[in-house]
UniProtKB/TrEMBL annotation:
It comes from Streptococcus acidominimus. This is Membrane protein. It comes from the Bacteria. The chain crosses the membrane at residues 26-46. Keywords: Membrane, Transmembrane, Transmembrane helix.
Amino acid sequence: MERQQLDPLTEMVENKKKKRKSVLKIVLGIIGSLLAVIAIAGFFIYQNGNITGKWENPSLAAELRQIGIHQFQSGVDEFQINPEEFVGKSGLVLEIKDNKAVATLYASFNKESLLDSYNQMIENAYNEFLRETEQETEQEAEQYGLSKEAFLKQSFGDNYEAQMKALFPTPEQFEREFDDMMAKQMADNHGQYDRVSGKFSAVYFEGEVSPFTHSITVTKINSSSDVTSSGIDLKPGDVMIYHHSGDTLTFIGGEQYPFKIKN
């Protein structure tokens, strides 16, 4: 018996694969935008004695997460994922140790949420195919004197549902594709990606701290395209002036973004 349902099924699978690719492209766009926006926010501390420790900006972190959520909401209508669940925390950490400063940009994605949505997409696609071909399947089955169930089993195998779904990349393959994409993107940004946690980060700049003058002199800058696309002309030799009071660290020109010591 010819498997006459295979052509429309294959076409549907290919369309869903394209949707998967579009979701991954959206994720790439979010990464680039977050790094650029974080870089802009980090520049406030340039335009804006002892501060040893890790400092982070709670207000900035919340704003950055909302930016990522807003960007992800466009273009993922069929890939049903909740941006609030997928987009994790984002921010800028300033670590001071031995009068050395390192500013690190970071963000994270919830891969479990992504994989749940991918599995649901496959399930929806399978049900969609059955609905769209129901009349044709019943007619074909009747010609052979079979029930619809028996016809599907003869066309695709006893476990026809699994056979149909097997045409899609497995969740493991999709996760590997996602991880490989993230790892490459972060390598291009001189950063790192943790496949287990879904967190990605990149050093924005390094500098020398002067407790006497309450300043940080930039010694090294991340020159990757996503970071430099922010349009910020931060360069080695630039000086940032800070004010330290208790657990709060502010920079001249960026008082609206106070940093808090991380516990």
